[in-house]
Amino acid sequence: MSSELLLNIKDALLYFFLNPVWLLAILAAFMLGSKRVKQERKDFKISIKNGSSEMKHSISSAWLHGLVLSIIIAGVGLIVDFNWIIILSIVMILVIVSFSYKLASPIYYAAIAFFALVALDRWAGDFSVGSWFVQEDLDFFGTIAITVPIIAGLFLITEGSLIRRYAARYASPLLVPTQRGMRGAIYQSKLLWIVPVVLLVPGHMVSEFAPFWPQFTLGAESFSFVPIPLVIGF
User: Fold this and answer.
1) How many CB atoms neighbour CB 6 within 10 A?
2) Largest Cα–Cα distance of the chain, in whole Å?
3) Are strands 192-202 and 221-233 parallel, antiparallel or unpaired?
4) Which pTM value belongs to this model?
């Protein structure tokens, strides 16, 4: 039993680190650092930090926030739909590849994913993609209408905490034209954070797609922990 549990945990971690959201976010953070270094060297002939600083920061700075978030979500029992997680991940991918990191706020992800799920249920109830996106009858004015806003609020608190702690610390100088025809220096921050979050999903939703995924039982219900990389931009 213990070896099976360790194998399931290993598979969960493997799928988390191979998640395309995680990989794209790392690449985007590296590109942010490279662009910053080029701009600083263009304006000041020297860069303040090396080009990999944003990438290292995106990976290392938000683990504690993710741990606290996961404990709260699991402890309170905030259950979400597995399809909501899939759409949430798709929205994050679209934001990352668009390079519009001012839009990389989890409140947007959560709202778009929720209303997209409602729209699919109303106008494309039979839509499915293989075995990993199969629609089920959901009460959009019941549990999910309560848990999604609460989780979105927790995400938003996490975003505010990260911005307050790191935005000024990682600000980069930039020369811009002034109204008098000269150039003045301003400071701007462009950062990405990858917050590892564990969400709680009804067990049958995950078992249909990944029967090997670890589950636990509470009363007559089974649940699964699904780890995702939550990308926050500023």
Assistant:
1) 10
2) 73
3) antiparallel
4) 0.81
Q: How many CB atoms lie within 10 A of CB 184?
A: 11
- pLDDT tens readout for residues 42-56: 878 877 788 788 888
What is the distance between the alpha carbons of residues 145 and 128, in angstroms, rounded to a whole number?
A: 22
Output the DSSP codes for the chain: -HHHHHHHHHHHHHHHHT-HHHHHHHHHHHHHHHHHHHHHHHHHSS-SS-TTHHHHHHHHSSHHHHHHHHHHHHHHT-B--HHHHHHHHHHHHHHHHHT-GGG--HHHHHHHHHHHHHHHHHH-TT-EETTTEE-----TTTHHHHHHHHHHHHHHHHHHHHHHHHTTTT-EEEEEE-TTSSEEEEEE---EEEEEEEEEEEHHHHHTT-TTS-EEEETTEEEEEEEEEEEEE-
Give me the torsion for CA of 115, 97, 105, 170, rounded to 10°. Answer: 180
